[in-house]
């Protein structure tokens, strides 16, 4: 029987790759809703192409011209569309904090969640995991590293000694600090191996993406024993080390459609999703320790991983603001991590509460305000 799927963030990089998977496996899936933030034209075009009647726009309140669609609006709209369509699995592939709302609604209804949106776990991990523990929903990661670890760990969670996340090293892997100080937006957007949205591509250049993934891994797999290894070819999507010292790797050419397909079909596996990966074609693979001096995001990330509480929420919010200031050309590349560090120091003095969604949303808001202020001071 076809699995009913809803996609939050269908117009983005992950969303369109998910649609690609669904169009290739039409008999396995039935699309029941699609959402976007504001790009109504593309959303309607996709909905027509995939014969989906229910769509939502999370960033708009109302709209003229429904063109025969059943349209939901705003944050509430994302919750309502999940409730009204009751899919078997919701793929949450929007960017931004708003991803947490359809995730919590799906968990409340016992619906599985295929999670690409990083903010959901990084900023609201304790709230999401608490809700998940009392639900029949399964949370299946889409991020390539976490999908790899999730698959490697099946049946062996009790044997895990350590997770080893791979990182491509981004476009500045071999750049000096002096060169990075002058890096342009164009330089930062040239990712060597993955094609992704703009914000996450900048995060890959600072290695902040890997730091967000540390926090995601903590919530998904319940351990702080996580190393990061630079692997420029992005063939190994991550390793786990078992208690006897055995290392297991998950490999393949970089292609997000593979983890997306696995998350959508879980616990089944589709046939022939990746038809090109073979060790004959991989060439040489390199692995080395990251340089913490040139990539200060890493020390910051391990500090945040040790602290947890409100720290990841603050880090994520400050980073998002700093990245958007960098993309607007207002601050330099190295300022991004500096602003995140400074925002955390300022918030530490306020020791905010962090146990509910509302409190975490307040931490997020306050951190954004501080980061924006710091960015504006730098851009003067
Ligand atoms: P894109 O920028 O390509 O797409 C973002 C999607 O979210 C679009 O549908 C967009 O709608 C919507 N959106 C944009 N802004 C907002 C907002 N403020 N609130 C809610 N929705 C919004 O992003 P990606 O597909 O690259 O990434 C999506 C998520 O998946 C991110 O959290 C990212 O970290 C994560 N991820 C991405 C990977 C990748 O390979 N791209 C890998 C692993 C994780 P509209 O078109 O209307 O603007
Ligand atoms: Mg990743």
- Roughly how many Å is the radius of gyration? 20 Å
- Give the helices and strands as they follow along the chain: EHEHEEHEHEHEHEHHHHEEEHHHHHH
Fraction of helical residues: 40-55%
In spatial order, strands of the major sheet run 4-3-2-1-5-6-7
Q: In percent, how much strand structure appears in the residues?
A: 15-25%
Distance from first to last alpha carbon:
60 Å
Largest sheet data: 7 strands, parallel
Number of strands: 11
- Compute the number of helices: 16
Describe the 3D structure.
It is a single chain. By secondary structure, this protein is of the alpha/beta class. Helices cover 48% and strands 15% of the residues. It has helices spanning 13-24, 40-49, 74-85, 100-108, 118-133, 144-153, 177-181, 185-188, 198-206, 208-221, 257-265, 279-282, 297-307, 311-327, 335-350, 357-379; strands at 3-8, 29-36, 54-57, 70-73, 89-92, 112-115, 139-141, 160-167, 226-230, 236-242, 247-251. The chain has a seven-stranded parallel sheet with strand order 4-3-2-1-5-6-7, sandwiched between helices. Helix 3 packs parallel to helix 4 (100-108) and helix 5 runs parallel beside helix 10 (208-221). It is globular, with a radius of gyration of 20 Å. It starts with a strand and ends with a helix. The mean pLDDT is 96. The structure holds NADPH dihydro-nicotinamide-adenine-dinucleotide phosphate (NDP) and magnesium ion. The site of NADPH dihydro-nicotinamide-adenine-dinucleotide phosphate has 28 residues, from helix 1 and helix 5.
